[in-house]
Amino acid sequence: MQNEKTDELYNKLEMLESKKMAYLEVDDKAGARRIAKQIEQVELQIEISNYNKIKQELAIYKKAVSNYPGLQLEIKNKLIEQKII
């Protein structure tokens, strides 16, 4: 489902890009700017979708790691080493 939504967004992005080019070909700069704003919105939706996917994956990893205290300690040490925490 997540991939289908992302694919739809990429298809919409391609369609908007071609529409923007059509506006630019007929020298309709206002129309092209309007389409550019729509393109930005779709790109933001794609980024949000990617972040949500990463968030779901991390939740799964966190749940799996919670059963292994040694692994938790090793991860914590790596996070400290990388100055993340």
Describe, in plain words, how this protein is organized in 3D:
With 85 residues, the protein is mainly alpha-helical. The protein has three helices and no strands. It starts with a helix and ends with a helix. The relative contact order is 0.09. The model has no long low-confidence stretch (mean pLDDT 93).
Secondary structure elements and their pairing?
Elements: H1 2-25, H2 29-65, H3 69-81
Label the overall shape: elongated
Termini Cα gap: 34 Å
- Strand proportion: under 5%
Succession of helices and strands? HHH
**From the alpha-carbon coordinates, what is the Rg to the nearest angstrom?**
21 Å
What is the arithmetic mean of pLDDT? 93
Q: Structural class of the secondary structure composition?
A: mainly alpha
**Assembly state (oligomeric):** single chain
Question: Which keywords apply here?
Answer:
mainly alpha, 85 residues, 0% strand, 87% helix
What is this entry, summarized?
This protein has about 80 residues and is mostly helical. It has helices at about 1-25, 30-65, 70-80.
